[in-house]
Amino acid sequence: MARMREERLAHAAFLYYIQGQSQADIAATLGVTRSNVSRMLTAAREQYIVRFEIAYPLDRDPVLEQRLTASFAAEGVREVIVVPTRASGVGRASHGLLNVGQACSAWLDINLRDQDRLGLCWGSTIEAMVESSHFDRRVDVEVVQIAGELSIDSRFSGHDLVRNLAQKLGGRYRYFNAPAAIRDEETAIALAQTPQVAEALAAARGCDVAIVGVGQFASGSSDLFLKRANVTPEETQEALDLGAVGQICGRFYNDKGDQIDLAISRRTLSLDLDEITAIQTVVVVASGSEKAKAVRAAIRGGFVQVLIVDDSLAQGLAGLQ
């Protein structure tokens, strides 16, 4: 029954998007009402029977890329990719996010190898990368979560991200079946020792490549993480007092790139920053000049081998040298 429904949705989508028929014509062909056709097209998009790719041309900035690579090479950065932030259309921030996501997809297409294990964390830039990505080859990789479950966008869970990316690559995926933020430290310790969570963390530590976003403390996705984690005012004040400037996978660090031991961190299920640093290639994706201090501190901490950013963030980083 489910397959018949999927085929019917695919048929309606084919008639509308490929053959260019009107919804009224499709309704007559399928023997349904026009409103039913509209609902079928919506369902086809929501169930990923129909997928869209927006192929903006990515005009990179090689001069700024070389300048930042040279500046940060001593701190472990091997490659910098800078893509444009357009000031028109659907919005500057949206374009930067989309362009960075597409540039990360292109990097993966070139650099991933068969038998690699690829780790993903959550974040709006990673969601944009997974949604906009397409690959010109199949790669036998395993895609895993390096942090527990947290949805930045209500449409996508961490499970959705690893599954969708693995399917686009032609690889396999593994879930992290636990929330990122636990209600208390004691429960977090107990969960981390269960076979299922211990295996998920071990798989994450075994990644060859990890894609992570960077959050500015108490802003954007970092702020959302704090809210989803039900952080108390006391925990927030502790982070401020200890100089938290950035966050990667729910782990906070100061302007020197040193991980901070916080109460919230002790009830978070994810790789810590030392474990992330041990991964052979960590690709940091970020957009927006407001993240410059957080990204610069991440570079100081040695968390970044490949940096993919939009030009507004790149200019901000250049100004912090």
UniProtKB/TrEMBL annotation:
GO molecular-function terms, A-Z: carbohydrate binding; DNA binding
Checking InterPro entries in the record gives: NagB/RpiA_transferase-like, RNA_pol_sigma_r3/r4-like, SorC_transcr_regulators, Sugar-bd_dom_put, WH-like_DNA-bd_sf
Signal peptide range in chain numbering: none
Alphabetically sorted, this entry's keywords are: DNA-binding, Transcription, Transcription regulation
Which superkingdom is the protein from? Bacteria
Q: Which PANTHER family match?
A: TRANSCRIPTIONAL REGULATOR LSRR (PTHR34294:SF1), TRANSCRIPTIONAL REGULATOR-RELATED (PTHR34294)
Q: Which residues form the Sugar-binding domain?
A: 64-317
Protein family (similarity comment): Belongs to the SorC transcriptional regulatory family.
Put simply, this protein is called Transcriptional regulator
Which Pfam family would be a valid example here? Sugar-bind
